[in-house]
Design a protein that fits this description.
This protein is mainly beta. It has one domain: Sandwich (Jelly Rolls), CATH 2.60.120. The chain has 2 helices and 10 strands; from the N terminus they run H-E-E-E-E-E-H-E-E-E-E-E. Strands 1, 3, 6, 7, 8 and 10 form a 6-stranded antiparallel β-sheet that branches. The relative contact order is 0.37. The mean pLDDT is 92.
Length: 138
């Protein structure tokens, strides 16, 4: 029996998952947009909203990783980097605010992961989340 090549191994043992979800979140509320049990690797995520005071929280094996668009902007993280969130758009004229996270090494989870969007503003927010990760299935 021939040995499997690298690509066959990936196809048989991993699920590549892309998430695109748009939700309206009332002021002061939060919405869980993804939850999974098992093992995997987060590769990237993007949050876009019509208000700047919106947060994302990844709970990875019980540890929260996340931040707020306004906070990242105030910190001056407006250029792509390989270690934390950064602003991709901050347009106060058209009310378009976005940040991305694409770490140089994927973030592993061994038990579970959950993604929550929070609207910390005083008005409703329309938020779009894009995420990409790999789930280990074998």
């Amino acid at each position: 029996m021939a040995e499997k090549n690298y690509w066959e191994f990936l196809i048989e043992n991993l699920d590549f998952i892309f998430i695109r979800k748009t939700v309206t979140v009332p002021a002061g509320q939060e919405v869980e947009i993804y939850k999974d049990v098992g093992r995997g690797l987060w590769f990237s995520g993007i949050v876009q909203s019509n208000v700047a005071n919106v947060s994302i929280a990844w709970n990875i094996d019980g540890t929260d990783v996340g931040t707020n668009i306004q906070t990242i902007y105030n910190l001056g993280l407006t250029s792509p980097n390989n270690f934390y969130f950064y602003i991709t758009k901050y347009d106060t004229t058209n009310n378009i605010y976005a940040m991305a996270w694409s770490p140089s090494l994927p973030v592993a989870f061994k038990q579970f992961c959950k993604v929550t969007l929070k609207n910390e503003s005083t008005s409703d927010a329309t938020i779009t989340f894009l995420g990409y990760f790999v789930k280990v299935i074998k």
